[in-house]
Amino acid sequence: MENFKLDQPIFIYDNVTDTYNDIRNGMFEVNLPVGVFNSRFSLRFKDNTLNVEQNTISDAIQINHIQNDNSLLIINKSLNTIVEKVILYTILGQPISNWKIENQDQQNIKIPIKNLRSGIYIVKLQTSNEEVSKKVIVLDK
């Protein structure tokens, strides 16, 4: 590359987990199942997790697993953000389920989930403004 500064940050961005991995300061390792992942990773030169606007929307949305009725509760405190779709992934990035959100109270979205083992999952929300991914811990009854 030409005109590239030696101290320029370089990140591998994971589109599924919405994480930036600094490869300038260390190795990046990920365990994936066998398959093709053409659009999961991209090379970035700026860590957008430092972007205040993105964090504001992300902070305005909470995702919790409600153990006693085996559901996901999405609390949306942003009046300007509409949750349009919810996608549930394993921690390895494998999609499990997805739900289109229509005609629901946007401040308290409840999604029934069944047959999930205890573990950590990634919930990706597609909103009217952006995509937000958060980790959620699911515990068996």
TrEMBL record:
Name of a matching Pfam family: Por_Secre_tail
Which InterPro entries would you find in this protein's record? Secre_tail (IPR026444)
Q: Does the keyword Signal apply?
A: yes
> Could you tell me which residue ranges the Secretion system C-terminal sorting domain spans?
74-138
Query: At the top level of its lineage, which domain of life is listed?
Result: Bacteria
Query: Could you tell me the keywords of this UniProt record?
Result: Signal
| Name this protein carries in UniProt | Secretion system C-terminal sorting domain-containing protein
Organism whose genome encodes this protein: Flavobacterium alvei
Lineage runs: Bacteria, Pseudomonadati, Bacteroidota, Flavobacteriia, Flavobacteriales
